[in-house]
Amino acid sequence: MNTLEQYYLKEEHHLFRKTLRDFLDKEVVPDIDKWEEDGFLPREIFKRFGEMGFFGITQDEKYGGSNLDFWYDVIFIEEVGKCWSGGFAASISAHPYLAMSHLKHEASDYLKEKYLTKSIKGEIVGGLAITEPHAGSDVAGIKTTATKQGDKYIINGSKVFITNGYLADYLIVACKTANTGASGISMILVEGNAKGITRTNLNKLGWKASDTGEIAFDNVEVPIENLLGEENKGFYYIMQRFELERLTLALGAISASELMIQYTLQYMSERKAFGRSINKFQVLRHRIAQLSAELESVKTYTYLICQMHSEKKYCVKEASMSKYLATELSDKLGYQCLQMFGGYGYMEEYKAARFFRDSRLGTIGGGTSEIMLEIISKMVIDSVDYEKREVREETQTISIDDIINSLPTRLKTEKAAGVELNVLFEFENDLNYSVIIANGNISINKEKNLTTYDLILTTQTQTYIAVETGKLNPQEAFMSGKIQVSNLGKMMQFGTLFRKFNNEVMK
């Protein structure tokens, strides 16, 4: 067991890793070379993954998932990255962590029943279509349009470099539904065989085992109910899911690099030059030592971010740093390890050549290294707060009135029985709400109508909305001083009396 894993993983995680590893060694690794030649994965392997429950690790049990913690996903990403094929890892990961991630978070119950359930079973395969020929990492600059006509959207435009894009049964497509830049983008589910779609499988330098599609949309008709989430909120959804995508790429790069180090060390112990194995030459030993030190450091940092992500803490900056560091290191490691093989490293029969090609894409996919650095520089140098920006976008349609007025419908009457509690909410601009709980009943007044209160909560409206909608961790809000309370004990008691806020209470 890796020393680092002792701090984050439990016995059940290790058992899952063994089960997954045994499955991969039996049903994936023997066919990797064939899939590399074919240029895509067979549908049967997706079905086998679905049958084993690997696509529903953190998905809702209602749709066939297991609702496990994020560390099971971490293990999944790591192990599929150790199969000597960046293309296989990309294709098999894009389905649950790109396409299905949007279904999980933004799709209606109708779409989840129709697509998510089958996706978890591996019966259908999804792809995420965002990148365009002239937009690249500039998501706000996409030109694919979705025009509403009656009960349909008419989609026109093109996408490129879409993993699973050629064979996908459905695509989650980013489209412009309003001519207002980033605030006019929507996410729409499109059937892969819809009339008007043309798909081409691209010939790539590496990642040979994954199909990568170039897709054209020519007056493609899509039912309005295929909209994911709210119209014109797609940019926000994309930004939210990028955190997971970057972590996925970082973890995959790290695990594949660990495998390459092991492979290189094995070769170095067997290869002899000048009467001794080449792992005895100091310059080569130190090169491996340096790479190992850097790799372990990046892995330690990435595990910390995985823990933050599992706790639903905002970590866009950290995930961007991890993706940058891990993929750049993997690229460097591929170059330097190949050198250890000499001329044999340039031969296709050695896995070093494949790793060298596959690792190169890590610095490009999911946002280039240059884009990662720009994001990081904006947050570190310019003090740009993407969290506040995203919170504001998410909550602009939800008012503080919506939140406060939902309290009666969220009150756990059985738990509130016998409780007497007077609470004052103090917001900016002298906006106050008095909430009085007495024997299972609740009353709300939009004013300060009592002389004394058991609890006074002082904060900004957007901060409290963010907490109630799950976009801001309440503990962090208290510790950072964004929310101030007169009595912490009463605040904790108050919190236990209500169910979580849900948009459904507004309907």
* Strand coverage percent: 15-25%
Structural class: alpha+beta
* Tally of distinct domains: 4
What is the assigned CATH homologous superfamily of the largest domain?
Answer: Butyryl-CoA Dehydrogenase, subunit A, domain 3
CATH level-two architecture of the largest domain: Up-down Bundle
Figure out the total of helices: 19
Tell me the CATH topology of the largest domain. Answer: Butyryl-CoA Dehydrogenase, subunit A, domain 3
For the residues shown, what is the average pLDDT?
93
Q: Mind telling me the CATH class of the largest domain?
A: Mainly Alpha
List keywords for this structure.
single chain; 507 residues; alpha+beta; Butyryl-Coa Dehydrogenase, subunit A, domain 1; Butyryl-CoA Dehydrogenase, subunit A, domain 2; Butyryl-CoA Dehydrogenase, subunit A, domain 3; 4 domains; five-stranded mixed sheet; four-stranded mixed sheet; 15 strands; 17% strand; globular
